[in-house]
Amino acid sequence: MQEKKKVILGMSGGVDSSVAAILLKEAGYDVTAVFMRNWAEDDGACTAREDYIDVVSVCSQLDIKYFTVNFEKEYRDQVFSYFLDEYKKGRTPNPDVMCNTEIKFKAFLDYAMDFDADYIAMGHYARTKNVDGKTYLLKGLDENKDQSYFLSRVKSEALAKTLFPVGNLEKEEVREIAKKYNLSTANKKDSTGICFIGERDFNEFLDQFLFTKPGEIVDEKGNVLGEHSGLMHYTIGQRRGIGIGGVGSGEPFFVADKDLKKNQLIVAQGLNNPILYKDEFEVEDLFWITEVPSFPLKACVKIRYRARDEGAELVKENDTYKVKLDNPLKGITPGQVCVFYQGEICLGSGIIK
């Protein structure tokens, strides 16, 4: 009798990883679930305690072994420190991308391999395919839930050892499976936002760790319109919470730029204001999942999660990489991840400079 392949499943306490456990068992794998503890819960905002209770409930129901592993130190060193450093520079980082890169598909993968696992598995809406010994990352089948954006800085070698059981399903199908098994997570709402911030006020959280210096809000001509509460509290393209109204045409203002030297927040009035739009931008720290492409590279880009794919060309000019868009875009934000696609294949990503 052939021995079952051993899979270590990263289980979050949500419906997606719960159904991933079901599908793995149905496929004949020897499944062990691991709950990753990445953040201390002494502040009352983290939902780790409640999530772990759901993991225990689902694993008990499915007769799956489970345990917890603590990655709090790795998370603070690799993800949270990066998060704070980027905000200090006036940029807007994506810690979820870094969490996948450094924790789930590095620290957790290494941990699982120490247990002689054949694979790790995750509840992400993504897929992989193997062509001539190379592993490629594909978008999840459910376009509305596709999470390949967050996996755009994960190595091909790690993806080769990873299973994404729900990647071929629509979200509604996943919930139907959970209901069929009467799982406690069947109707649990999807988690949103950054795990260590939870439901609390984002700016108040930042103020606990970073020094805030108020300054002037100015328009593109340098006219002073008001006072900002600290540049780190604003992101490019932001409309709400700027605190300016009843000025000029009466149209809403948007954050257009930040001047760190002058500590000024630069805003522009009107959705169609041309200074809000760019047809090219630089990227740095390029990361290619499977192979380095040749340049210029024709591809689609996604400048943030939930953004539409946009046609573009990535060109190399000396040591600089520029994304030249087919159509100008608003809200191109330094620190965010720009992900490159060709069809359903996720090629990799760069950080918007």
TrEMBL record:
Annotated EC: 2.8.1.13
Annotated spans, Interaction with target base in tRNA: 94-96
GO molecular function annotation: tRNA-uridine 2-sulfurtransferase activity
InterPro entries found in the cross-reference section: MnmA-like (IPR004506), MnmA-like_C (IPR046885), MnmA-like_central (IPR046884)
Pfam families: tRNA_Me_trans, tRNA_Me_trans_C, tRNA_Me_trans_M
Residue span of region Interaction with tRNA: 145-147, 304-305
Domain tRNA-specific 2-thiouridylase MnmA-like C-terminal: 279-352
Keyword Metal-binding: no
HAMAP family: tRNA_thiouridyl_MnmA
The protein, known as: tRNA-specific 2-thiouridylase MnmA
